[in-house]
Amino acid sequence: MKTDLLQTPITYLKGVGPNRAQVLQSELGIATFDDLLNFFPNRYIDKTRYYKISELERNAAEVQIIGKIIHIKTVEQKKGRRLVAKFIDDTGEMELVWFRGHKWIKEQLQLNVPYVIFGRTNWFNGVFSMPHPEMELLSSHEQGLRIHMQPIYPSTEKLSNKGITNRVISHMVQQLFAETRGVFRETLSPDVIGELKLVSRSEALFNIHFPQDQKKLARAQFRLKLEELFFVQIQLISKNLLRKKKIRGLPFERVGEHFNTFYQEYLPFELTGAQQKVIKEIRADLGSNAQMNRLLQGDVGSGKTIVALMSMLLALDNGYQSCLMAPTEILANQHYNSLKEIIGDMNINIALLTGSVKKSERKGIHESLEDGSLHILVGTHAVLEHKVQFNNLGLAIIDEQHRFGVAQRSKLWHKNDIPPHILVMTATPIPRTLAMSLYGDLDISVIDELPPGRKPVKTVHRYDTNRLKVFRFLKDEIKKGRQVYIVYPLIQESQALDYKDLMDGYESISREFPLPEYRISIVHGQMKSEDKDIEMARFVKGETQIMVATTVIEVGVNVPNATVMIIESAERFGLSQLHQLRGRVGRGGDQSYCILMTGHKLTAEAKTRIETMTATNDGFEIAEVDLRLRGPGDLMGTQQSGLLNLKIADIVRDNDILKTARFYALRILQEDPDLALEKNLPIRQTYAELLRHRNIWNYIS
Ligand SMILES: Nc1ncnc2c1ncn2[C@@H]1O[C@H](COP(=O)(O)OP(=O)(O)OP(=O)(O)O)[C@@H](O)[C@H]1O
């Protein structure tokens, strides 16, 4: 068939008038034949099974029964009239009920003739009933085309009041297959189809809408998921190739004095193998002629800061400035302080720029940035302001990407004529394949090894009623010279309430841990930054032993002497947040603990979260569970969610298919690298046509 036919507006389909077309388009995004063809059912009802009335269960279920009507009556009620038919088989009786269309239905129904009925059962007052059943005479049911598995299309229940029922969609799809004769252009090349033993596209599309049996359905689903993921991968990888080809980067050819001196004389510990590997990857990127766009993933406490610093030293050795951006002031402060400490008396100029830096100081920073005398700028998003002009920004490092949008990332590009190299650091572990899908435009490095001597944090769950015992434990730890965090949840909608929780907690902790033996810091969002800094600094220096805080301390805070993390109302936190918080302890050589406090009432999901935390310290494992609980959209916020707007594949569940799809996408692009660039002369007919057809060129050019 001609491709054009699939672009036919849906109104050309029999039975679709302008009104219906309007609803289809606005509610389901179906405007053309092609849209309808790709509107897949989200579940199927097995129609190979016939139930007996005696087998019905009280929980509502969709069932198919053979029997006959022996009696019909109209029942008048306050709410309106109902038509009720008594339906029997050789095992029992039930009621069929209609609330609308009485007259017509009554005329149609035949008494004492075998019917096959289908619908959802209800159990009420000792009787099973089925409202508005689908009915067919057994005689014609046996003759007609048997539907083995009935497709159920998404949203049809919601739209039935607008005339878009499941049956309507089913009929439209049937009509579509009739008009196109069910022959659709193949989109994958014969070698892929052969190697993976895929069914053809036409067969897959038929079986996704009208599966003949479970096996055929499974093969159709596999084929269509693979195809979908394959094209997403082609798109992402092409984007990556294009970027490398097109975007000239600043070549950092030298490894010079700063890097070497630091490495030989200042590095406070030996790098882990993973850190070395990642630094090598970064060096290779910086030395090539293309712009680096790299995502550095490393679990909490894995040692990303040193990698960031050494990358910035490479920039400096090549005569370029760099900046390090953090999502919060506390974190920016901390990065600044720890960088300053690590570089000691090396001849490197470094400054901190956040919202609370004074105007007079700011001016100095702006000037030294512009004249090039400032080498490294650490800051919050204040760095992105237009006023902040660099002399020659060569490397921008962004910590905790998920708090900065892609748009902000691109702002950095314009801080130099040739865009600076970009390194995005994240401690949110993202399963690798998902990361590939989300960050197809970034290369990925992973620090998959913790510094030596770390002991896994022991995590336990305690109920609020055990608080006194927990306090005793804290006192023991503090006696040993350790420090502890006590964290309260923060929910944006109700800051006042959270504040109250925190203050109540602070009061009771102050009573339990009185001066002068115990000293407590408190940090929360409503404090002035200066005060936060002072409190934070006291804790870092060890002047206070207890830090009472909201989640402002969630990311990046590094106090190796802190060994206990207590999380209050732990059920109110998400998994990745819990993992981040726990990452604040276990950063030194001492055994550390994380105590999750909750009330007794927990939802099933909260239980899963708590159990996961107590069962494992592995950030990647936790991320997998988190993904299952929340879905990928949530994990990354809305950014790039368009890419994940998949019709049939599920990035988490279909991970294996994703890997296969990626393998083939890589292979085709390796064989024909020009495919990613070439717009007019497709080498591989089938792919190239499809790439164009799916508007992939629009994405990548
Ligand atoms: N190779 C190493 N050997 C020993 N200690 C190390 C090593 N690398 C880093 N550290 C130390 O481990 C701690 C954590 O490092 P860092 O703060 O860089 O972690 P991170 O990856 O930024 O973690 P987070 O995302 O949780 O902030 C620091 O105290 C750091 O000095």
Automatic annotation (TrEMBL):
Superkingdom: Bacteria
InterPro entries: ATP-dep_DNA_helicase_RecG, DEAD/DEAH_box_helicase_dom, Helicase_ATP-bd, Helicase_C-like, NA-bd_OB-fold, P-loop_NTPase, RecG/Mfd, RecG_dom3_C
Span of domain Helicase ATP-binding: 285-447
EC number: 5.6.2.4
Gene Ontology biological process terms from the UniProt entry: DNA recombination; DNA repair
Stretches assigned to the Helicase C-terminal domain: 466-633
Catalytic reactions on record: Couples ATP hydrolysis with the unwinding of duplex DNA by translocating in the 3'-5' direction; ATP + H2O = ADP + phosphate + H(+)
GO MF terms, alphabetically ordered: 3'-5' DNA helicase activity; ATP binding; DNA binding; hydrolase activity
PROSITE patterns, A to Z: HELICASE_ATP_BIND_1, HELICASE_CTER
Keywords: ATP-binding, DNA damage, DNA recombination, DNA repair, DNA-binding, Helicase, Hydrolase, Isomerase, Nucleotide-binding
Record-linked CDD domains: DEXHc_RecG, RecG_wedge_OBF
Family, similarity comment: Belongs to the helicase family. RecG subfamily.
Biological function: Plays a critical role in recombination and DNA repair. Helps process Holliday junction intermediates to mature products by catalyzing branch migration. Has replication fork regression activity, unwinds stalled or blocked replication forks to make a HJ that can be resolved. Has a DNA unwinding activity characteristic of a DNA helicase with 3'-5' polarity.
NCBIfam families hit by this protein: PRK10917.1-3, PRK10917.2-2, recG
Protein name: ATP-dependent DNA helicase RecG
